[in-house]
Design a protein that fits this description.
Blueprint: H1 2-19, E1 24-26, E2 32-35, H2 37-44, H3 63-77, H4 84-87, E3 88-89
Antiparallel strand pairs: 1-2, 2-3
Length: 90
């Protein structure tokens, strides 16, 4: 039974990777932000780091959330953009 549950969980995880968009574009006042979703999945590995309640849209997502969570993670991992112009392209 444990093997069945483990294989189902792995299947759901792999399906999420297969169907996830490669890049997501967000409109912003000071320049659009292109988000490489697939790359983040490969680097972070744990979807719940961003999607606390599971796959799908992020609850509370917006400027404040992104600046705190995304920029904070980049600073913590010491990789990825942390300056305004690195994310916001005009």
């Amino acid at each position: 039974m444990k093997r069945i549950i483990a294989s189902l969980a792995l299947s759901v995880f792999c399906a999420g990777l297969a169907f996830a968009a490669d890049d997501i574009a967000f409109k912003a006042k000071n320049g659009d932000v292109k988000f490489p979703h697939k790359k983040h999945q490969q680097v972070v590995g744990n979807c719940k780091k961003c999607h606390e309640k599971g796959a799908g849209k992020i609850e509370g997502f917006g400027k404040d959330w992104a600046h705190k969570t995304c920029k904070g993670c980049h600073e913590e991992m010491k990789k990825g953009p942390t300056k305004c112009g690195d994310c916001h392209k005009k």
